[in-house]
Amino acid sequence: MAASTPTLAAPRSPRRARRPNTELYSWVFMRASGALLLILIFVHLFTNLVSGGGVSAIDFGFVAGKWAKPVWQVWDLLILWLAMIHGANGLRTIINDYATRTGTRLTLMGLLAVAFAVVVVLGTLVIFTFSPCPPGAPADLLPSFCTAG
Amino acid sequence: MPEAPAGTLYRGREGMWSWVAHRVTGFLIFFFLLVHVLDTSLVRVSPEAYNAVIGTYKNPIMGLGEAGLVAAVVYHALNGVRVMLVDFWSRGTRYQRQMTWIVVALFVILMAGFLPVHLGNVFGGE
């Protein structure tokens, strides 16, 4: 009864990481972008492969008809950026899991970074510099609105 | 004589196999995406160049490849929802096995809707 309560040192507070928690942001991004991509890509697959003539109806006129509308330019741009970041981040995980030698890992990461940059820059430029009615092209290959005026 | 070890394959049942399938489909979709941006970029070259390359997507072998691609995308999307439910739903981990089979069922339903339309377009002729 008389024994005094031993005093214990207060638990030390956990060390706070100074740098931002990039792996957490990567984890959150995979889920957020995944949810958006589900909608974006299911609609993309439906408009291109199911409605109308499906794959048999895809030609320059079909693509030009879609990209003449800003909504599809933005739609495809969102797919391009979100899917490339989502996919490159997934490949980063796969490389980290299986490429145990540092040299192999750095080489594969370098290739991934180059492929990512080339495809994202090229795709973005194509969406925004594209002309649905290129001068000099045969009219029967173009969407009908090119000759309607 | 001691019994031979049963092997080193980790038999994690539905949880492991859905993870394997998610990884494999994600890997394949990424490489298709690279090719898909390159082929679509031909619209910037000329209508003839784009139509020539997209024409190869319409032959039966590529048509089957597209069916496989759509299957990979549909599985990856549905299982991605399952992953999010496991992460964010309080009972997600308890029902992860049942959700795997729900993913399989939804996959079969969606593909049953898609395949007849797509294969009709590929093999139906003009």
TrEMBL record, chain A:
It holds the Pfam family Sdh_cyt. The keyword Iron applies. The keyword Iron applies. Keywords: Heme, Iron, Membrane, Metal-binding, Transmembrane, Transmembrane helix. It is found in: Membrane. InterPro entries: SQR/QFR_C/D, SuccDH_FuR_B_TM-su. The chain crosses the membrane at residues 72-94, 106-130. This is Succinate dehydrogenase hydrophobic membrane anchor subunit.
From TrEMBL, chain B:
Its cofactor is heme. The keyword Transmembrane helix applies. The chain crosses the membrane at residues 20-38, 99-119. Keywords: Heme, Iron, Membrane, Metal-binding, Transmembrane, Transmembrane helix. It is found in: Membrane. CDD domains: SQR_TypeA_SdhC_like (cd03501). Its main location: membrane. Belongs to the cytochrome b560 family. This is Succinate dehydrogenase, cytochrome b556 subunit.
